[in-house]
Structure formats: structure tokens, C-alpha cells
Amino acid sequence: MTTKRFDILWKCSEAFADQKPLPDGSTLIAASDGFHFSKDAIQIFIRMAAANGVRRLWIGENGLLSTPASSVVIREKIGPDGVKATCAFIFKACHNPDGPCEDFGVKLLMENGGPPADIFLDVIFDRSKSLLYYAIAYQQLDVDLSKLGVTTFKGPIEEFEVEIISSTDDYLKLTKSIFVFRLIKQLISSPNYDGLNGVSGVYAKRIFIEELGADESSLLNCDPMEDFGGCPSNLNLTYTKELAARMGLGKLCELNPPEFGAAVDADGDNYIIFGKNFFVKPSDSIAIIAANAKWAIPYFAAGLKGFARTITTSAALNEVAKELHVICHEVQNDQPKHTADLMDAEACSIYGEENFSIGSVNIREKDGMWGVLAWLSILALEKQVYT
């Protein structure tokens, strides 16, 4: 653990607690994308949460919980006392290779499962520059992150609980309420999928192998690694070259590629879709999903509220919106809070970005696996209708 990383961790956590006092009996979520420092960061955060009067912590199994899954847990999971989580702290390495001297950051999700407003982040940052102290439990509160269940510690006022939860159960339950897994299972026998050695591989194994019956050989790089396999987890043809070659792209491509392939980045929020000898541009992908969502995704059978895209994403989505008689909102790049606000106002059902991001009203974060399942749902229904 480097001093710089520890400084980021304690300053961000303490500044948040200082600027947003937690109500008594609060529940928080601690998560990570599996990077090098993640388990140490979570163990430190456990002690800081205890010292700041938190009642309960929910932590994904082995410390793993993707950004979209964290949003699901905030919005859907209810504790034994009827309390939901107040926010989530996600420790991640962003889209860069990780290792002892590489990137480290903290992502926050608020009560609605979405990101905080920029003005609040600015306040936290400004406060972090003047902090002279942090609260941390003197007692070592080591928790086995690999063992599901509750560990209880005696606190100064009341007991402090740390619960290790399934990384995938809540997310899987939500996706099953959105998509028809039975139809997708009839479609796929070997979907080619790349998890880029991050947390997203955990969800790929649970959904594609355990739920949809795909063969393990169809999954690439789905074992989380602390350094993401030495590569950035960004999505493009360079960093997904193994999958791209399998799909018939590049100099060393396969001669008889499959019909469908997909990749999701290490923390689960971006995706890329491949067909036989081609890949789908993100602006086209969001437009295709939006155009077919009402009839291919049961969740949207009652209709769509509207769409949103970043200003640098092509206007293909606008044309779909015109055809469906809904509004397509344009939002600034790197302003996810604006999209979450549109969804809270019931003005947006689906949104996308030019950087291979997609999201839906089901949560308040980008969700690469949602995009993959949306494509499979469209293809499954096309096959059912035309065969």
C-alpha cells in the first residue's frame, strides 16, 4: 500500500463523512473492480466506517461488486431493519492497467444509485485539501471477504455489522425482471465474451454459463486479476484484440468466425458488440437498441419515456426518437448526474455515449452487461419471428 493511495482513501472517505453527516444506523456499500489495492482499501474502509458511526456495511464477495451492480444494491436491497444503503464507495483503477504503482480512485454513488452532483464532488475535494485528521477504529477489524455472511463487532454505542453479500444475486434478479432469459438461452450456444480480467467477468460467468448454459470456452479473460492482465481495460479494437481476432478482425483473425461477440470493461460499465467480421459503432448500437427496445425487451413493453445521448454521440438516436415520438435529450460529456436526473424525472428510458457506454432507467449507472443482454434479446426475438 503506497502513501499516495492511503491518502486518497482516507481523505475522500473522511471528507465525505464531514460534508454529508450520516444518519444514525446508516448502511454503506464498499466495492471494487478487483484491482491491486482493493482488498487492503476495503479493510481500511471497514475501520473508518466503524469509527464514523456506520451501523452496517455491505461488501461484495471477495470485495468484488461492479459499478452497475452497486447501483442495483443501493436501489433494491433492503436490510433486516428495513433500511436501504445510503451510498456506495467503489474503489477502482478506472480504465488503466493496475499494479502497485498504478492508478487508484474512489467512485461515489448516492441514494438513487447514481453519481453525486459535480458541485458536491467539488466540496469534497476542497475539504480533503484541508483535512488534518481522520477517524479510524483502533482495533484491527479484519473480515474474511471470501465468506458470505455477517460479522458483528461491538461498537461504542451499538453493534457494527459487516455483511459479505453475493456479488451477483441482486444484479441477476434485476436482469431477469428486464429480459426473457428463456429466449436468449434458445439463441446462444457459444457467445464470445471478453471480460478484460476485471469484475465484469464474475457476472459473465454467472449469467452466460450458470443461467444461459454457454460453454466456458466462449468466455475470454473472465477471471478478475489485480493488474487486469497487464492491459488497460478500455474498450477498443486494440485492447480487445483477442476477441476481435476470434470475430474475424485483424491480421491474425479466424477464417470462420462466430455470429456474435461482446466485451465489457473491467468495472462493468462499458461494452462493445461484434458481429461476424465487424464491430458495431457505439452510436449505432444505442440507436439499434432504442429502436427495438419496446418489442424486444419486456420491461419496455408499456412504452419508452425518452432517450439521452452525449453531445459528441451521433444523431442516429435522434432519428429513432422522432420515429417513436419521444424526446432525445442531449447532455454534456462526463456529466452522468444529468442523465440520472432525467431518469428520476421519468424523462429518459435509455441513454448512450460515443465511448461505448450505455444505461437504462433500471438503475442510475452505465451498464455494459445490460447492453449485451439487450442485443441478445433483439437477436433472439428476430430469430423467433423470422424462423
Automatic annotation (TrEMBL):
Molecular function terms, GO-annotated: metal ion binding; phosphoglucomutase activity
GO process annotations (BP): carbohydrate metabolic process
Domain Alpha-D-phosphohexomutase alpha/beta/alpha: 23-125, 283-383
Source taxon at top rank: Eukaryota
Alphabetical list of Gene3D superfamilies matching this protein: Alpha-D-Glucose-1,6-Bisphosphate, subunit A, domain 3
Keyword 4Fe-4S among UniProt keywords: no
Keywords assigned by UniProt, alphabetized: Isomerase, Magnesium, Metal-binding
A Pfam short name: PGM_PMM_I
GO cellular component, one term: cytosol
Family under the similarity heading: Belongs to the phosphohexose mutase family.
Protein name: Phosphoglucomutase
Source species: Rhynchospora breviuscula
